[in-house]
Amino acid sequence: MKFPPFGLPFRSLSASTAPTPRTTLAAAMEQSRYRLMVTAAVVTTVFATIGVKLVAATLFSQGGEPRQHHALELDSTTTNRADIVDRNGNLLATSLVTQSLYADPKLISRPEEAARKLVSALPELDYKEVYGKLSGDKRFVWLKRNLTPKQQYAVHRLGVPGISFEREERRFYPAGNLTSHVVGFTGVDNNGLAGLEQGFSKRLNEDPATPLQLSIDLRLQHVLRKELTATIQEFSAIGAAGIVYDVRTGEVMAMTSLPDFDPQDPTGLNPDTLFNRATLGVYEMGSTFKIFNSALALDSGKIRVSDTFDAVHPIKIGRFTINDYHSLHRALTVAEVFQHSSNLGSVRMVQLIGIAAQRAFMAKMGFMRPTALELPENGWPLAPNPWREVNSMTISFGHGISVSPMHTVAAAASVINGGVFHPPTILRRQPGAEIPGEQVVSRQTSDMMRRMFRFVVADGTGKSAGVKGYVVGGKTGTADKQKGRHYQKNSRMSSFLGAFPMHDPRYIVYVLVDEPKATAKTYGYATGGWVAAPAVGRIIKQIGPLLDVPTVDENAPEILNATFLNAAGSTNWAQQAPNAPSSAAPPPPKGSTVASFPTPAKPR
Amino acid sequence: MKGKTWLFWGGLIAAAGAVLFQTSYDVQDLEEKLAGLNRKIVTEQESIQVLRAEWSYLNDPTKLEELARAHLALQPTEARQFLALDAIPMRPAPTPDAAPQAPLLGRGVNPALPASVVPVAATPAPQIASARIPSPKLSMDKALERTPVIVPAALPAIPTVKTAPIKPSALIPAAAKPPALPPAAAPAPQPTPAATPAAVGKLAPNAPLPALNRPTDVASRPVAPSPTTKVIAAGMQQPKPTDSLGMLVARLGANR
């Protein structure tokens, strides 16, 4: 089609070029037909769309608006944070719904009258303070948090405009101080600030319907705390820590650190009470470490329990001199080194084993990193680096390495439970679930260590921990505390690690007392055997029935078969006269491999 | 004809409209009811939570021990109060003529029982004169099924029971030390809570026990003079016993 030159009207051009002349009318008709068709297309599209949407809305969407109300799920809770319960289902922490009172001062026309009314309904409020809040120009002020229903009713009745209630949750700890260090506490807005509340804060908020079940048993917790409190009072100590531990599963059955705090009001108190001595505090454990030294010695295969070691001559290394607390002035067998807690014997044992093996063993026992416990308060051990000869010597009797009580207990459990190290946990293990574990010492070593534990309580430093019927074994520990760069003579950590029943160990009871002062009753001693061991005995006496440990006769043949050990390192109880424990130390057996280490050249 | 058709369709539409109208109002009613129920459920759940918290609070072992020391003559159980099941002599098989004697057995086993009726399997059990047999009603087989390995041989007498108070030391003769468990039984097959054997052994004899032993009683008894309640009530104007949440909130120390 040819276009007309610019400026000429289209009509005249088409009229002149078309073969048949077209009238103005025909052109107009054509134009209006086009317009009609466009209009019809638009209208059809719109109505078709409406029709399709109508069909979709009425037939295919499940009819009408979404429902406003749905039936509640039966097992849901009203709160936004899960409960924490102990292993028997007793509540340790729960959330309660309360109402809090707030005001919008912009809406209050006469602040003095409103304040007067509010103070009359809630006498514990201060008039001046309330008046100040109500006459300010903020849009939101808290007047009082967590009202009781009665108080809420009273405020409602006043009918003061501009004040309203807000539904709030408040964390409540029915067990109070009893589990304060385990459960921890939350802040005003229910965010965890310590303990499990902090460690499991996310889990508690994400799954509010399922309570978090701990391995803690409230009854044991009570017994433990009661006895620790009594011990602290008796010896005027500054603190104490205690753990009851299941050696077969790695569950912490009870854990206390004193002084403790009220989880409802943790901030108003001495910050020292918030310190968890059982997991966060790392201490030089003293003689309890001879457990691991002996286990290392026996497990290496180089040393047998009847081997003797020189415990007469002090060891000099550098500027240090290592000596015994009570020297017996003779050579001791491994059993006697453990029984009398001889430092010299321990050092000579580790000298035979070697530094590298000792370091590897301590790492295997978990003393190089925090424990697997789920609490956020989990202390890093202080291990020497590099691990020199002098460190190796002091570590053999528990100085020069600082670990938490939880480290000690978990490692000791692996020594006596058949040699399997279970990572400690504060959550209840599901029955039937596989318990993670790692073989760290052999069964034979573990069996011998049981006998040594029993030997200490039957005839050693831990006699006062014995409880008739529950075959108790254990090891005492006394460590001088380090203040600054020096050890202090009269401030020490006394501890006892007890286990029962020793023929088939099930539970460890550990007590650590911080800076006990000797009393007349203990003849001036404040060592582990005098302070912590009696407490452990009292605890075992009370928790044995609760834990359903069968009582046995300690002198029955099958029990002696499993637990007997004498000072010479013999496990044959039949040779010994029954009921006559080796009171006077027998001479070291002749003819046995004497592995005594050459004494230092310079006797002092 | 055309009029009738219109009438039919018109009627049908009107009926459908009426039914729809009715249904929509019914639904609205039900929705409101549901909302009300939901509110009630939430309230109930909240009060259940409060009651559970209060229950745990009142069951705090520390408080229970104080109360027990103040009001009961009970002591913590000790190891010597437990005996292996093998140490307890068997009851004779129930014969028809022995039935009237059964209640008497609650006091102790007749030491003169013929050895043939004592069906102890391997070890001849020492005769403990005053060992209590758990239940006079149950046959020994059933009692065995129910009783775990440990059976309390002697429990301190509950003061409210009508029997004369028996000193625990009197119940165990010096000769009757707990004998050793056989190796099979030694590693305690079932760790059952110690309360179970105690409950079986304690409550069964002399059946009509006063209601004192129900756990709720201690909590609900008015213990006004006890110092513990004062501690609870401190900081709040003497909350009524029913005002549970009030009591708890008062304890929360949140009324600052």
* Helical/strand content category of chain B: mainly alpha
CATH topology of the largest domain in chain A: Beta-lactamase
Low-confidence runs of chain B: 98-140, 147-241
Largest sheet of chain B: 2 strands, antiparallel
Question: Overall mean pLDDT score of chain A?
Answer: 83
The total count of helices of chain B amounts to 8
Question: SS-based structural class of chain A?
Answer: alpha+beta
Shape-level CATH architecture of the largest domain in chain A: 3-Layer(aba) Sandwich
User: Distance N terminus to C terminus of chain A?
Assistant: 128 Å
Mean pLDDT across every amino acid position of chain B: 59
Descriptive tags:
A: alpha+beta, Penicillin-binding protein 2a (Domain 2), Beta-lactamase, about 15% strand
Strands, helices and their partners?
The complex is a heterodimer of chains A (604) and B (256).
Chain A: H1 10-17, H2 24-60, E1 84-85, E2 91-103, H3 111-121, H4 127-134, E3 141-147, H5 149-158, E4 163-172, H6 180-183, H7 195-199, H8 201-206, E5 212-213, H9 218-235, E6 239-246, E7 252-258, E8 283-284, H10 290-300, E9 308-309, E10 315-317, E11 320-322, E12 332-333, H11 334-340, H12 343-353, H13 355-364, H14 389-396, E13 402-403, H15 405-416, E14 420-421, E15 438-439, H16 443-459, E16 473-483, E17 486-500, E18 507-514, H17 528-546, H18 557-563
Parallel strand pairs in A: 1-5
Antiparallel strand pairs in A: 1-2, 2-3, 2-4, 6-7, 6-18, 8-13, 9-12, 10-11, 14-15, 16-17, 17-18
Helix pairs in contact in A: 3-4, 9-17, 10-12, 10-16, 11-16, 12-14
Chain B: H1 2-58, H2 61-71, E1 82-84, H3 140-146, E2 150-152, H4 168-171, H5 195-203, H6 215-220, H7 227-233, H8 244-252
Antiparallel strand pairs in B: 1-2
